[in-house]
Amino acid sequence: MNDIQGEVHKLGKWFHNIDLGGIKTAPDHFLGDYPNIKFQRFAHAIPADLHGKTVLDIGCNGGFYSIEMKRRGADKVVGIDSDERYLEQARYAAKVLGYEIDFQNRSVYDVAGLGEKFDVVIFMGVLYHLRHPLLALDLLYENVVKDLLIFQSMQRGSAEVEPTQPDYDFWNTDIFDRPQFPHMYFIEYRYANDPTNWWIPNQACMEAMLRSAGFEIIMHPEKEVYLCRKAELPDNECYAVYPSRKQQIEL
Length: 251
Fold this sequence. Notes:
Rossmann fold; two-stranded antiparallel sheet; single chain; 6 helices; alpha/beta; 22% helix
């Protein structure tokens, strides 16, 4: 017990509160028993039996979700993060709990380097930390998502959502004043004292971005959380992200 407590302390401040045999890694977390307190509100939406499945956890932090996927029997779990301190915490937590998980220092923009697609991809708490969020979703679609995407992003603004029209007249400017229209808020400096908080969508924007990247929303089990399935890209001649896709920019 004392050895675990000492190692947890030595690994620095944890953002994931993980129970390591009675030792909590972040017992004083400002959000409570986080992320477990949130996970319990949408855990039912994830297949309970992941035997024979592969999982990629993007922005794995201290490894909470990676560990939960191994608990559900996933054959292979890969967790990536660009913060080596979090990765050290995740490796230690998995070791103490007896789970074999491959934790790698890798950016979301470099997921193609993994060289494989995964049955389940977890992409939670990352999008709003990115300067290029839609690019990240495109990269996931193109390179690593085989079937399911478990997605979450911080959201602000209206939770109202209105149907998206296929086109809007140039002179129709009133739509931009409607709170239920897709909006993305840009943070120039800091939000919540965090310089990596760049873009924060409202709910309509988040759902539109997921659809735009080729993901079908099949369940919205918890605030900010979406269970998505990889689908066909929207049939729109203006979609142009990669040469491998049929859609091309018309200049």
